[in-house]
Amino acid sequence: MAEIEYRAVYKAFDVPVLTGVDLKVASGETLSIVGPSGTGKSVLLKTTIGLIVPDDGDVLVDGQSVVDATSEQLQAIRRKAGYVFQNAALFDSMNVFENVSLGLLDDEIRALGRAEVLRRVSAALEDVNLEAEAVLSKLPSELSGGMRKRVGLARAIVGQPEILLYDEPVTGLDPINSAAVDRLISAIAERMHVTSIVVTHDIEGAMTISDRIALLEGGKLRFVGTPQEFRNSQEPLVRAFVDREAAFAAAAAKSEAGHEGMA
Amino acid sequence: MPRLLDPLAGVLRAIGRVGDSVFRHAGGMTLLTTRTAVDTLRGNVALRDFVDQAFSMGVQSLPLVMVTAILSGIVTSQQGGYQFTGSIPLYILGSVVTSSVVLELGPVLTAVVMIGRVGARITAELGTMQVSEQIDALYSLGRDPIPVLAAPRILAGMLVMPALVAIANGVGVVAGMVSAQATVGLGSQSFLYGARLFWHSYDLMYSLLKALAFGFVIPVISVHMGLLTRGGAEGVGRSTTASVVFMIIAVLVSDALFPPLFLN
């Protein structure tokens, strides 16, 4: 398990995106970051493993600075983390087995041998509720959106990381698949005792899977608290999020009832 | 008075912007080249990746390179034949065709084919990987894209280009010889006599040296531009277009620098 700390993280791309974010994520905790589009959620997530370097401030992973890390130290931080990208970011020319086995280091692959690598890749795929036999030889283009996300998740967990970073894991999925991915995130966090950070627009999912929720808006953290505190907060921005979600859930329930009535 | 200076300030700003951009790209490509060299010397480049790229760039480009070489030999021969008939001994045509193809047309036209067939593909491929976060995914998996993606392409370009140019030279000269026979009735013996008359063995080395330079420039620019891509499908289109323009300019400028550097 690993602890992550963001210290006054500042980043600008022409205009400021993050303007001094302070946040601590405890070992084994699942924290969801929510907020409007373009507010810097994914940028903050990418600073965790140095995919984006802050202009100012620092990110510490188990006390090790990401900003000042040597390339070896940065590699060590990255090896601790599994990153699930928004669109899975699978390699088009590689099949599922090759994509997932990339989560293991080359030295590891050589040391383990093909049979053990196959066993580990299959186990990771089974962990994300995919039938390994059926998908191992398939190319990403032959998979549905939900399956691609799961393969991306399998690639992130095959190396037994201590940290899992999810960038909008349910975006583009239907509600059933979204709920299934949310359940997977919770199950993996519990089974592997990982520290998880989930960037999401799905407030209902965030309420279910998170120990804490952080609201990022205008480059700053506006709220950090438990799902219960988030739901009960009177902060106008938080209310806007919660109420919109509640309105959507009510509309969905009404629509469902209407369909049942017609049936 | 300040208004009078506005156009001048505008011109200076534009020069500054272009200069800044040129130096940024030059710096980026120098860094890419250095890192490729270091990773190659450290043995970090997988042989399989290099062979795959060499096959794709070399073997799969061969038909198009040969068609281009045949046509360049035929055109040079026909044009020379038309100009020489009745004024210059026709066997000189052998020398003109051979020198034109080996010194200029073989390397440059092969480079143009490679820009269109290989350079544009590399930029679009790496650009798509960049905008779909596959490059970030490589970093997150503890892998450096330079030995995995950049180095195999650059090394393959440097190996394959001289081989393609050597083939293009041979094919172009033979096509010119056949065309001379067909159009102005110059026999192959006379054609080869003319070719040998002004031939320097250094010419071939010069041609292959050019090919090596183009084989380096094309993948370096295309990889660099691919890795710089931002902004979705539109960004991939923009960087691919810019990459092709840069490659053509770089090939033509280095082509113009070759005679003063190596032929005097």
What is the overall number of helices of chain B? Answer: 9
Q: Most extensive interface: pair and counts?
A: A-B, 20 and 10 residues
Which stretches of chain B are poorly predicted, pLDDT < 50 over at least 5 residues? Answer: none
SS class of chain A: alpha/beta
Contiguous low-pLDDT stretches of chain A (5 residues minimum) are none
Q: Outline of chain A, from the CA principal axes?
A: globular
Overall mean pLDDT of chain B? 94
Gap from first CA to last CA of chain B: 51 Å
What is the subunit organization of this protein? heterodimer
Average pLDDT number of chain A = 89
- Give the helix tally of chain A: 11
Strand content of chain B: under 5%
- Give the helix proportion of chain A (percent range): 40-55%
Q: Strand-residue fraction of chain A?
A: 15-25%
Q: Strands across the major sheet of chain A, in which order?
A: 6-7-8-3-9-10
DSSP helix fraction of chain B:
over 70%
What does this structure look like?
The complex is a heterodimer of chains A (263) and B (264). Chain A has 263 residues and is α/β, with parallel strands linked by helices. Chain A has eleven helices and ten strands. In chain A, helix 5 (114-127) crosses helix 7 and helix 8 packs parallel to helix 9 (203-209). The radius of gyration of chain A is 19 Å and the shape is globular. The N and C termini of chain A lie far apart (50 Å). The mean pLDDT of chain A is 89. With 264 residues, chain B is mainly alpha-helical. Chain B is globular, with a radius of gyration of 22 Å. The mean pLDDT of chain B is 94. The interface between A and B is medium-sized, with 20 and 10 residues.
Task: Give the helices and strands, then pairings.
The complex is a heterodimer of chains A (263) and B (264).
Chain A: E1 4-13, E2 15-25, E3 30-34, H1 41-47, E4 56-61, E5 64-65, H2 71-80, E6 81-84, H3 96-101, H4 106-112, H5 114-127, H6 132-135, H7 145-157, E7 163-167, H8 175-192, E8 195-199, H9 203-209, E9 212-217, E10 220-225, H10 227-232, H11 236-262
Parallel strand pairs in A: 3-8, 3-9, 6-7, 7-8
Antiparallel strand pairs in A: 1-2, 1-4, 4-5, 9-10
Chain B: H1 2-41, H2 47-57, H3 62-84, H4 92-131, H5 134-140, H6 145-184, H7 188-197, H8 201-227, H9 232-263
Helix pairs in contact in B: 1-6, 2-6, 3-4, 3-6, 4-6, 4-7, 4-8, 4-9, 6-8, 8-9
